[in-house]
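Hi R.,

As promised, here are both runs. First protein below:
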Amino acid sequence: MRYFSLVVLISAIVFIIIGCGKAPVTESGGDIFAIVTINPVDGSDEVPIGSPIRVTFSNTIDSSSAVKSVFEFKLESNSRIVHVAGEVIVSDNELIFIPQDNFLIHEQYSVTLSSRLKSVAGQFLEIEYTWRFSTGDGTGYYWGEKDITSPLFVHVMEWGNGKFMAFGGDAIDYVFATSPDGFTWQPSYNMSSIVHCMTFWQSKYIIGCFEPTTILYSDDGLVWNAGQTDGFYPIMIRAMASNDDILVAIGYQAYVDSSGIYYLAMKSSDGVNWTEAAIDFPADTSTIGDICWTGSEFVIVMSSSGFDSNTYFITSSNGTDWSTSTVPSDEDCCYPVSAIASSGDMTVAVGSNRFYYSDDNIHWSYTDIDMSSETYLEMRDVIWDGSKFIAVGRKSVNYIYGGAVVYTSVDGKYWRESFLVPSNDTFSSIAWSGSRLILGTSAFDGKIFYSPY
């Protein structure tokens, strides 16, 4: 958050507002009741139509003064004051307006906060304050922030069995945890391996790990057993996907004679006993990315290394017979791909600044995210939430970490960045319950992000 200064002169109080969204406030330690931050900030574009209005103050708010009329909304297109139904909530020094009805799409609103608002000490705002924002097309999300006690960070997250499932920890101890709402987490198992993927399938929790035990399953999330992989030697499971009959996992294996590490695909009909799936992986593959089930077939995405690299999409309707489509790079650059998801009609794969899409999983096109040559995306996860694709990760500017990013797309072709994500962390995973999105971060700060608000 940014903090702003109120300059007190002898005869008047002059509010200095520098840049978009900066509201007048009191100096630290002062006793004037004033605004500290606002969100959406002044001049915001593409604001989700269901976004709450959040204002923090320098002192605790007197809740009796926080009536709905302290917020006045005006449409800039016709300069008319409009009624926006909603609820006003006070939480210590934070004032929140949660709209009951969505804002109109593609409209500019001005919001005026009344000077009738006061602190518990009886101080009123010196003057009313007005700022503006513009709404988007109705497809965006507002993201809230929540403190959790355990795990302190979330590395992998999924939804299954009516719960959020997560692997995380605190840099020393790692746990498998579940949560009914994404806020209250119950660690149930201390992990000795790094978990890369998880699912709930055929009444079992199943997780894919790094050595020493690469596949674990559990009926209750408390007692875990090792999956059976007789005849081959997986050392790391990167991703899993399933239909009603079969679960397919991809990763890496070591040959019994220790002659090297190789790519691996394996399948199971019960989540316990596994057999190797025979796939002729491309010889120049350096990164095995992800796998998804589209509703009709499995799709694996992989990338080769270096400049002029290729991207490979390997498909199978039954987990036994596989075919490969190749998308060569058209320029002297590399675009590693790390995550894939499908809506049923469209499949997308993300990783860096190039987002791939296909409606048949054979012929692939891509959208290049238009950024400066010094900005690089590193997307970690992507899902379909029933109405749009959501991709999460981080960006770097001039090879310096530049903060978390969220991109959304309703068709898989045209993507936009969600600007209202209040975090500088790396978003490592995302899960959708059907009514709530939860974002996991790689920071050890005990925070998750969620939407709808």
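And here is the second one, sequence first, then its structure tokens:
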Amino acid sequence: MRTPVALTATLLASLCLTLACSSTGVTPPAAVPQDSGTDSDPAPPFAAVAVDTTTGQRFAVSGESNRLTAADRALAQCRATVTKSCELIRQGKQKLRTAAELRAGLAKSSVPLYLWRLRGTNATVYLGGTIHLLKPALYPLAPPFERAFDAADTLVVEVDISDLDPTVVQQQTLRRALLPPPTQLSSLLNAEQRARLAARAAEYGIPAANLEPLTPMFASQLLSVSALKALGYPEDGGVERYFLDRAGDRRVLQLETLEQQLDLLFSLPLDVQRDMLVDSLSQFDSLATWLESMVLAWLSGDVEQLATLFDEQTGDSKAAQAFSRALLDERNAAMSEKIAGYLGSEGTYLVLVGAAHFGGDQGLLARLKRLGFSAEQVSR
């Protein structure tokens, strides 16, 4: 039985949203000391270990009040000695693989990338699948990805986060993310669910009271981003941000708008949002393993494996299936038409879309083929 849609998968491979693609806008609450832990890692105190991947020197911290503080302190100690080669290798009892260890899992011979080349009469489109939050040590990307960027005179992203006013982002998000007074998040949960949510929030330094005015979807987003940060995947570390920061004089276009993505995310009925939040609370313990599997699939250009991992997070209920269709299929239809338009123009484009959009009969590659454009996968 598959579980209800997990927002973590959405953040990583489908929607490039406020918290998932930018350090601007609405951010998770600051870590504060808490008194509860979880069943799987019964602390506080929490511990983390960072490593200087150049020298192998390790920096361990323990006795911290939450996972985020432990991760931040371990990395800070490492960065006080070196500048660019620090990674987390342990979060509590969970061993984390470094970027080098993830890359070592790839075949030594030619490996396909999550990058395709399509040609029109006078235009070339490089279509790249992205992970919206990525371990910083995985940059720079493989040379063919970098060469595609160098060749492009136009960069296309889902939403141009570099052009967003943080105040507008805050307003647009909170208009959808806050529950109508006097409703509070705890009123949507039973006693056992409230206790689980409070314990999980405390793991990441988020007081349960800070979640009370939030919709279940936004509370889940805050927890997911905090959990990813505690594993060494910062919210400003995605592929889109990496290229947008280097766009220079290139033209930057967007496939969607912030409003469209926020409307999609927060359009679900509150009872469906609640079920997604409650289900996600039990998935954090396996997040590191699932996350590394997704990154490996992305690094090796394996569309089928990534689709399988994403599908594992999609539920069987009518509401979950409807959300999945809106999240992928319906957006793919609009995106593929825009990409076909680029192919009918002139110039070279690098188009970046969440990696979950590529596979299947309704994926971007299949839709573009039906529109008359065959895609050639690029290898490293």
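A quick note on the second one: The first strand starts at residue 46 and ends at 52. Let me know what you think.

Best,
J.
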